[in-house]
Amino acid sequence: MNTSKVWYVTGASQGLGLILVKKLLASGYRVAATSRNVQKLKEAVGVIDADRFLPLVVDLNNLDCIDESVQQTLQVFGRIDVVVNNAGYGMTGTVEEIAEQDIRKIFDVNVFAAVNVVKKILPLLREQRSGYIINIGSVAGFVGAPGWAIYSATKAALAAFSEVLALDLKEFGIHVTVVEPSGFRTGFLTHDSLAYTESKIDGYQAVKDTAKRYLDGNGIQPGDPEKASEIFMELAESSQPPLHLYLGQDAYNRVAGKLKTMTDSLEEWKTVSISADYTK
Q1: Which InterPro entries match (predicted)?
Q2: Which residues have a Cβ under 8 Å from the Cβ of 147 and sit 6 or more positions away?
Q3: Region label for 59, one of left (φ > 0), alpha (ψ between -120 and 50) or beta (otherwise)
Q4: Which one of 11, 64, 147, 242 has the fewest beta carbons within 10 angstroms of its own beta carbon?
Q5: 6-274: which CATH architecture?
Q6: Between the CA of residue 104 and those of 83, 90, 114, 148, 216, what are the distances in Å?
Q7: Distance CA 23, CA 226 (A)
Q8: C-beta separation of 223 from 185 below 8 A
Q9: Of 106, 123, 24, 3, which is closest to residue 60 (Cα–Cα)?
Q10: What tens-digit pLDDT sequence spans the chain (280 residues)?
């Protein structure tokens, strides 16, 4: 592997981001890692190596702050090769009960933060005519589950953003992958994600059952974040990485099932679909 590459990883103080940063540093890469709390990041990583590790305190919803972190990375490492938009969190609950400010907050973190990072790093990658962007989505962005409507909407937006971004950047030699995992043991189910778990509305049994299933499975998810991190490093060395990469058996099964259902429905309603055009 080309360990001279410089990685820029957001949301690096915990979960998958932290594991990835540790794995990258152990493999000899240079890493700029962002967090809202740089001291927490340093303590979590446990490696203070100014030659290869640059911890950055960054507000990902502040373009000036992101720009400053990019400039710091360039000053220390001279380039950026791989961008991992990992910052994000989950949220479950009925749509009626989730407060407007919480909906806006999760879109800010899960969608607009990634867009902001791309906006600020793209000029550099275009000038290099090389680079790789990994956006961490979720299988929920394609196959949602009851109670995850808002979260799924953020990840669907990130997937669509990634798809068109890949088309826009192809001519510059810049690749894009949206990684869409199922359940991984990363501490994903946080206080924020569980704030609306207990619905007070009559009915919505599917939502309540799904929330209980996720809570009961917390800490025993089948996905291994160490293996996921290794896959990311392999992707960065590929000359043709995939646009979509679903991680985990559950993700594969859910996507395969939905694709079949969609194909069947598309053909069933084909006559109606094409009937909407002007008749020649």
Answers
A1: NAD(P)-bd_dom_sf (IPR036291), Sc_DH/Rdtase_CS (IPR020904), SDR_fam (IPR002347), SDR_oxidoreductase (IPR051911)
A2: 92, 93, 94, 204, 206, 207, 208, 210, 211
A3: beta
A4: 64
A5: 3-Layer(aba) Sandwich (3.40)
A6: 24, 13, 15, 15, 28
A7: 8
A8: yes
A9: 106
A10: 677 899 999 999 888 999 999 999 999 999 999 998 888 889 889 876 778 999 999 999 999 999 999 999 999 999 999 999 999 988 888 888 899 999 999 999 999 999 999 999 999 999 999 999 999 999 999 998 888 999 999 999 999 999 999 999 999 999 999 999 987 656 655 555 555 566 666 667 777 666 667 666 555 566 788 999 999 999 999 999 999 999 999 999 999 999 999 999 999 999 999 999 998 7
Sole residue written with tokens 């700029």: 32
Among 151, 204, 214, 246, the one annotated catalytic: 151
DSSP states along 30-66: EEEEEES-HHHHHHHH----TTTEEEEE--TT-HHHH
Count of residues making up the chain: 280
Q: How many CB atoms lie within 10 A of CB 203?
A: 9
Name the strands in the sheet holding 6-9, side by side, starting at the edge strand that comes first in the sequence: 53-57, 30-35, 6-9, 82-85, 131-136, 174-181, 244-247
pTM: 0.90
Helix (H, G, I), strand (E, B) or coil at 6: strand
DSSP SS3 for 78: coil
Is 151 designated active site? yes
The residue behind tokens 């981001």 is: 17
Cα 90 from Cα 214, distance rounded (Å): 12
Cβ atoms 181, 139 nearer than 8 A: yes
